[in-house]
Glycosyltransferase 2-like domain-containing protein
Amino acid sequence: MISIIIPAYNHGAALPSCLASLRRQSFSDWEAIIVDDGSTDDTEQIVNNYTQSCRPEQCIRYFKLDHSGAPRARNAGAKLARGSYLLFADADLIFDQTALKKMFAALKNNPQAAYAYCSFKFGWKKFTGRTFNAAALRQNNYIHTSALIRRECFPGFDEQLKRFQDWDLWLTMLKGGHIGVFVPEILFQARVTRRGISAWRPRAWYYFWSLVVRLIGLAPASFHRYLEAKKIVQLKHGLI
């Protein structure tokens, strides 16, 4: 079974589309665990209304925590999961109907891999992945949080990190000898919303401000926060 863990904080409006895309999956052996991270909107009611229309074999469970951030919500969901495989999905994702089937097949065909990951879209923008490369991963993250992970290889998210929790996860797994396998297809799309992945900025933004910082030492506060968060992960893993 695949356990799909969805942390949600005031994502009531986005959840139905995400859940509908899961119900359309060609792979049927799955459960969805929605971990409400202390939402103040109508997330709980929306989930309750939605699950009433589900068939009995489509298991969607709901749990609510006090607000403490997505890493803790993901870890809580992992503890509740019944599947041998874990997939952490943002509430604003819409999955291709073959997503679970293809990532599961990639793991079956590559027993040396601890997780399978793919390309994806954010709105109109394509994020094309690459074949797994440990050296490249130590430089920058190119793997989305929503990879399919063998449960026995999952070390948990670092709940102290405010950013780069996904990069930290893959680096932690790499230290344990766990690598990934790339599925060279776009298997999900992130909706452009006011929350979650919608904070994405184009690569040129980071490249431009990295040059400016090197030349004159000035950049927006948001870029300095990005550098500080990245440095925390790099120091943790001995990369600088």
